[in-house]
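so i finally got all the pieces together for this one. its two components total, 637 residues if u count the protein bits. some of the lines might not be protein, just check the labels. i wanna see the whole assembly predicted at once instead of chain by chain like last time, that was a mess tbh
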Amino acid sequence: MKKRSFGLILYLIFAILPIYWMVNMSLKTNEEITGALSLWPQHLTFDNFRTILTDPAWYGGYINSLIYVLINTVLSVAVALPAAYAFSRYEFLGDKHLFFWLLTNRMSPPAVFLLPFFQLYSSINLFDTHIAVALAHMLFNVPLAVWILEGFMSGVPREIDETAYIDGYSFPRFFIRIFIPLISAGIGVTAFFCFMFSWVELLLARTLTSVEAKPIVAIMTRTVSAAGMDWGVLAAAGVLTIVPGALVIYFVRNYIAKGFAMGRV
Amino acid sequence: MQLQLDGISKQVGADTHIYPLSLSLVPGKINVLLGQTRAGKTTLMRLMAGLDKPSSGRLLADGVDVTGVSVRKRQLAMVYQQFVNYPSFTVFENIASPLRLAGQLGEAEIRSRVEAVADKLHIAHLLQRLPGELSGGQQQRTAMARALVKQAPLLLLDEPLVNLDYKLREELRAELKELFQHSQTTVVYATTEPQEALLLGGNTIVLDQGRLLQQGPTLEVFHHPASMRVAEVFSDPPMNLFAAQVSGAQRAAELGGDIALPLGPHLQALGSERYTLGVRPSHVRLTPASAHDYRLHCEVELAEISGSDTYLHTRHGEISLVAQLPGVHELAPGSAVALYLNPSEVFAFGADGRLAGSPQRRQAQGSAPWPA
């Protein structure tokens, strides 16, 4: 019993140490960070956070990121819902193959699509817009969303659909009033997965933007200035970047495992 | 509603689920679809509802061709074997939903109708709950209430009681009959249980492996099964069947061994050939009921108590015989027992399985068709 809790505590320390260290750094001054080792801030300061929340170059990055992440999440789920319903409820020519090949989009590294996206968006004036990043991320998120939602939808008995039709529901009304509430957990989990992918994705987001829609992850990689590295501010930015993900994961915490199993548990 | 199936068939891939069949439902009555599992009851019902499209044939409602018409545009209600309700609606909203969608009734009228039907099905006190908080029986009552409140001219019930426990099933079965007695609705009721068909009365359609075997008034089908297969499907426990050779002179059937069963008056016309004779387990008794009863000495193999009856499995030489005896009888396996059966209650089927002779019904009988 004691041995086990000792192991668990050790594991917890290892797991939480990097996060603790980042929070620790974000509350220190640059002098202290680059100075001798200290396990907690000797001169507690919130200046790093103040810098980020007051400098438009910093907080603008968060706003840009949130905008395209939200657009991407909403669009991905909106597109995936009808597709997943079709895969779950109907039989059509090549449905199984199509369903499988959807996932091939995720089998190639995002970098493969860098050049075509960059060239395409430049030529249709989408470069450096939020929608550009959102659309690019949908290439990866929609297949995943379809797979997860299909799993959740297939868990709803088809008889409910039929009963609704017999009762006289039109399809849109049935879908919104009856079906969506039944798979709300699945929609939450799907949204979470889309959100997380888009929130942490760096390569496409950085390449497809320059000034107007520059995401926070891109800004964070460019903090080396003439004055050297601004460690404290960078750590504070890192802490703030964790917050949205932590918030979203809190709401779907009970369904995450089912989501990882594509709704098929 | 007068629903008519004209040469309807259903094929899925290479499998034939329903062979072409024609039938017309008796309007305003209960039509029982009787058949064992995989007989095609559910498939046929889905075709009647328009949930699936037949591979061939036409579906006529009151003479109008409704083949391929969307189920939304048809006037019908359906209750599934599984308890299907809208989980996010309260019981009240579940029952009210078909009325709300019809959009012709005011809120007060909807409320009074929902309450009336909930009252009939004894779920009036549950109206504010969600279906997930109800027991299986209550969930199925909710589903039935939703189907009934619509007052659709066609009501399809697909083994609605099969997932309920024994007591509830008995209770609901009796209530259902009451509910349908005075309605104008054409009811189709699918079941595997002969008892259910007899209790509901009306008309019975016997299905087997996608084929329509027989249809007619329930008692008519029960007493005069057109074939051995119908008799098997429409008998629980299954009918006792014996291969027999009818000999001309003595007017008796040799069942093998030393048994020569005299033929009843209804079987006098049988030729001297091989037949299969059938006796319902309920017509095998421990004590003679009349002077004509034939006595058979058997050895008990198993006495199985089911409800208030005892199913006695016995053997005489090569012949095995099952008797359904009212009451509880404890007979040890291996003990000897004398069983009586009346030759006038014996069915005869020809070599092709068709009915060659069935017992004459005593009109005076008047009691329940399913013997106690």
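The radius of gyration of chain A is 23 Å.
Strands of chain A lie at 224-225, 228-229.
anyway lmk what u think
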